[in-house]
Design goal:
Number of strands: 18
Radius of gyration: 22 Å
Structural class: alpha/beta
Number of helices: 11
Largest sheet: 8 strands, mixed
Oligomer: single chain
Amino acid sequence: SAASDVYKRQYAMWAENWQNQSYWLDGLEPTEKSFETIVTNVDVLIIGSGYTGLHASIQIARAGREVLVIDSGEPGYGCSTRNGGQISTSVKPSQGKLEAKYGQDQARAIRQEGENALEWIEEFIKTEGLDCSFKRSGRFHAAHSQEQFNILVNDAQKLSKEEGIPVEIVSRQDQRKELGTDLYNGGVIFPRHASVDPARYHHGLLNLAIKAGAKIAGNCHAEKINKVLTGFEVLTSKGKISCKQLVIATNGYTSKLTPWLQRRVIPIGSYIIATEPLDKKLMDQLFPTDRIVSDTCKVVYYYRPSPDRTRVLFGGRVSAKETNPSVSGPKLHYDMCRIFPELSKTKISHSWFGTVAYTFDELAHTGCHDGMFYSMGYCGSGVSMASYLGMRLGQKVIGAKEGITPFDDLPFPTRPFYGGNPWFLPAVVSWYRWRDKAHMAKHSNLEVVNT
């Protein structure tokens, strides 16, 4: 097929020197302490060393409690060091949809938490002195069809009027002032959205947790949880750990270890590439305002300049089924070049993926089930919300009233016959990808290529 030929040519172009790891890990300094040993008895055990688990551990350790964080891989191996580093206001359902389910007051409180999380993470990074390239760059959300542009404009006006969220409308005629492409049909700017180097942010959290007194154990796979009179016993690949309180912070890596939670989150691979270094003039042409970018496709693309503006970092969902970086890389390169034809001869330096967790109601969920505290399901917007709800989760564990949030113990839906394996995704993703490309081709005279 034509698509197959394109991918073969692209693969041949960049196959020799690309790295199968997150670009964000390049040059990252090691932390000061080893993560090999465990303690067998602690006040609080946290399973998962991403943003959620580390923020919870910081709160707990600073309160004087003994806390151990374990992870089946190296600390931060998961999506906390593999995401795009884009920070939005995180809450996907609209005010109207939330009102229909929860009433006006709680709907407003849930939506406001997205704003609170964005404000909080900026203050936290500044206060703690984390060196992670945080920037209020703003987001350009591009419309992939004229119909979607009209919807964006209507939604922007509602956000501004009803929630006081600043939004700027960009017509197709003015689009190149924001983004160097003619592919889209205009869009909107969210000027308060931000960007960060996600791995350096995680690295800073790891050091803060250690400094606060938290113990971290990597390559420690939790195999079974037993509830006992004194709390929990967790059997791991490094031995048994007893704890009074247990926190589950596994998000996209939630497993059969916690079947009730596994039935309620949908693991989805999100794939990213980094280009080789680009000429400054070209980067200025493609990203004149340095904003992060997303679009209105159902199978969304998200991309941005690297913090030093030398590379394009381009992410999205590239196939109906989960795949690997050697397959996703050429496909992402092809999609990137449909947006930016100027990059058609640009090689790829890195190709990687991480696993995010969606929920059936598109909301994050936090609370306590069967005595276990949890927070997860950030629906691809987890940098600020995982951090914020992880912090609140830590406050819950120590009994602080500040830990209460509008997300607490919301109904956490699942579906009949769903056990954690999203068997329905290939059909859904294939349909959405075809529809997205058909809409885009209709408005931009582009060829529709089925992938």
